[in-house]
């Protein structure tokens, strides 16, 4: 078995120059699978085609998605049409492929009310939502794909098994091959963007049993020390939130203290909504654990340490 890491760049409109999605070709003696595809674009298509030609003569048998975010499935439709590779995703995340714009709308429903109540303007939220929908609209979502609850594939004698890794999304999975796991965004060096922090802490414990953890962005593979550092980063950020709300603070006041910015460029919407979504997840976790309480539109912490 051979693992071929690739980095698929983000388009300029994502406002993250120099960054991209980690994608992996995993090759057996004959078969070849791809784990996550990165975003679509002419340059990315040419890059993938060249990588496939060198790795397998252009053969691609399956595309396994770790979760349903567009930066992980963007090229899947193109590659399916070109190679016939079957696209596979956990059934809990298939909603993203069915209608990504709708999933953006549902995401904003989750954050919109607490954000407005917490001091963010409706206009800046609506502008960010509009730009995210425009970007989603220009990406081709796969029309044909297979869902699973549990997955096992044969790769020329190697077994590829799925493992549930909820937290970043509720349908996030990893793919286990030997002593390695491809985890998508379930663990990122320095990354702290999750939907459910309680689930994420459980996921990090699962990942510690593997010698190599192939991540969806940035440094890869990760080792046990990297996962320990990521746990520490989550704790540190939670304590930042506790300190910011010690005397009572609105959501926007906490946001400004923790993320050191009060405005965002609406043309790069992720700079607003990702930290905002994360902050709401942190506060909900801290509330469930008894560290903070909400009165009116203000949050109050009872401690500065976890």
UniProtKB/TrEMBL annotation:
Q: Which GO terms describe its molecular function?
A: hydrolase activity
Alphabetized, the UniProt keywords read: Hydrolase
UniProt xrefs under Gene3D superfamilies: Ribonuclease Z/Hydroxyacylglutathione hydrolase-like (3.60.15.10)
Pfam families given for it? Answer: Lactamase_B (PF00753)
Query: Keyword DNA repair: yes or no?
Result: no
- Where does the Metallo-beta-lactamase domain start and stop, copy by copy? 20-217
Source organism superkingdom: Archaea
Matching entries from PANTHER family are given as: ENDORIBONUCLEASE LACTB2
User: This chain belongs to which protein, by name?
Assistant: MBL fold metallo-hydrolase
């Amino acid at each position: 078995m051979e693992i071929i890491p690739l980095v698929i760049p983000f388009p300029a409109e994502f406002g993250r120059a120099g960054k991209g999605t980690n994608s992996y070709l995993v090759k057996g003696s004959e078969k070849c699978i791809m784990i996550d595809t990165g975003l679509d674009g002419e340059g990315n298509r040419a890059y993938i085609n060249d990588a496939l030609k060198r790795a397998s003569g252009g053969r691609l048998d399956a595309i396994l998605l770790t979760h349903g975010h567009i930066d992980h499935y963007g090229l899947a439709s193109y590659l399916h049409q070109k190679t016939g590779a079957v696209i596979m995703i956990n059934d809990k995340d298939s909603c993203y492929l069915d209608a990504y714009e709708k999933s953006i709308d549902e995401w904003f429903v989750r954050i919109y009310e607490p954000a407005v109540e917490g001091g963010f303007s409706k206009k800046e939220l609506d502008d960010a939502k509009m730009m995210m929908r425009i970007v989603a609209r220009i990406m081709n979502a796969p029309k044909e794909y297979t869902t699973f609850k549990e997955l096992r594939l044969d790769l020329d004698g190697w077994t590829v098994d799925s493992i549930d890794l909820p937290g970043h999304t509720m349908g996030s999975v990893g793919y286990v091959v030997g002593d390695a796991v491809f985890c998508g965004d379930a663990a990122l060096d320095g990354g702290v963007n999750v939907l459910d922090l309680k689930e994420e802490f459980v996921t990090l414990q699962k990942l510690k049993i593997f010698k190599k953890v192939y991540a969806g962005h940035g440094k890869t593979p990760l080792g046990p020390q990297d996962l320990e550092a990521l746990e520490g980063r989550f704790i540190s950020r939670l304590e930042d939130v506790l300190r910011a709300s010690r005397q009572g603070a609105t959501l926007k006041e906490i946001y400004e203290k923790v993320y050191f910015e009060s405005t965002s460029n609406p043309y790069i919407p992720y700079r607003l909504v990702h930290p905002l979504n994360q902050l709401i997840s942190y506060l909900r976790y801290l509330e469930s654990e008894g560290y903070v309480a909400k009165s009116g539109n203000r949050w109050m912490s009872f401690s500065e340490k976890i």
